[in-house]
Fold this protein.
Amino acid sequence: MKNKKILSPHEKYLLGVKKTKIAVRLWQAGLLIGFLGLWELTTRIGWVDPFFTSSPIRIAVTFAELMADDFIYHIGVTLLECIIGFTISMSVGCLIAVLLWMSGFARRVAEPYLVVLNALPKIALGPLLIIWVGSGAKAIVLMAVLICIVVTIISVLEGLCSTAPDKLLLLRSMGAGRLQLLRYAVLPSAVPTFLSVLKINVGLAWVGTIMGEYLVSGAGLGYLIVYGGQVFKTDLVMTATVTLCALAGAMYGAVALAEKLYTRRKKKRRAKPKIHKPHDPDNGIKKSDYLIETDNGKN
Amino acid sequence: MSDILTLDGVALSYHTTDGETEALAGVTFSAKRGEFLSIVGPSGCGKTTVLSVVAGLLKPTAGKVTLDGCEVTAPHGDVGYMLQKDTLFEWLTISANVELGLRVQKKLTEENRAYARALLEKYGLGEFAEHYPSQLSGGMRQRAALIRTLAFRPKLLLLDEPFSALDFQTRLDVADDVGNIIRQEGLTALLVTHDVPEAVGMGDRVIVLSPRPAVVKKIFTVPVNGTLSQKRVMPVANELSEAVWKELRTG
């Protein structure tokens, strides 16, 4: 007989949590493998024509061929355009949001324009962009910026404006000026909004970049997809698309990781000894009266 | 003792597109140095407006506010404002919260920091200086908020129903605590509350405001000294509370 350890209720709970986590991961991996397997199988036995759908192995082969060629260059072009577009729209968008926060008047003036710009399908501006900045990487970056920046401005501005009014009142009573309000209360309380905008923009920046590349480009993943589509090279289209998925996922992961690090740091600060004092409130503080409890030690 | 604060016929109207709301119609009273004044009045009578005017956040439409010899026309940073919620900044440690006023007023010298630190020590929060507000109990948070207003040495404390968010038991203790600290530091304070026993228990004088537009209806002098929990059981104080109630009721 094996010596079975008796688990405490909490250990049982933790074990359950762990089991669920493993199950989720297994299902995720299983679904992917199953999908790829089915895809490959159906093309092999002739149910679907790989000319239209390509197949996982053909994609892998194409990927290897492309890597030997200039695929890295195309990836680099797209990635660079995307990162530049993302960075510009984040920084300029936040700056504009802060300026609009500074002036309530400007905010009111800008409001209808923001609403219209937000509703406008930015792709419609494509032809104009080409006329304005030419058919190069500039137009692509600009497209990405156009798509991201309006959402950035609107969301960040909302975050800035939702600072607790009593915090502002307190600072004003201390004699704080507008810039001090911004520095001590408004910006710190908008950090969570900023982080969520960051995540939204990772997605939007890719949308903008690929759209831009569809319109104008001589290189990049979007270019390969359009080109592949025109010459009916589904292998190429699929390979570029899969690569795109991986890149977008990686970039989102990087931003999510940054957010996680930030919140973990914050959590860590808050997870320092919690002070509990049962029943009677804290008049006459004595240390022995407090139960010091830590929930460090994990993670 | 001289008056540190004088309100002379202070009137104030709010303007909205719907019209004009007269909140204050000539409020006149003064506070001596080191005095604790309680302000009570029917709800919505403009109690908080009085504090905002004293802090310079609102400009009176008529009348004059004088604080320590200077006329108040704009936010001046000479008042420590304590609100219903403790409004501690949750992303700052207790010591950083306490130094906030000094930082805003660009007075964060070594000496002032030491003073802020000493206040924390003196009032039992020294060991929690590097903690975050979320780690403190409600009462301790309110005490930290008070120390934050004391740290930049304001000439006057403004308390806007600072205890109403606390439960009854905690409330008595925190009120005693805050009252004691204010008296120990010899500060002048203006407390706005809707709780009559609290007003009598904490104040040296109780100012009763009329319904809107507010004027000073009557000023009661509290005949006994002591903390809120001490006065709560004194017949004299209870009689006074009764009288204040009556004054409030008779519109």
In short: The beta strands of chain A are 274-276, 291-293. Chain A has two domains: 9-48, 56-272. Chain A touches chain B through 32 residues (CB under 8 Å).
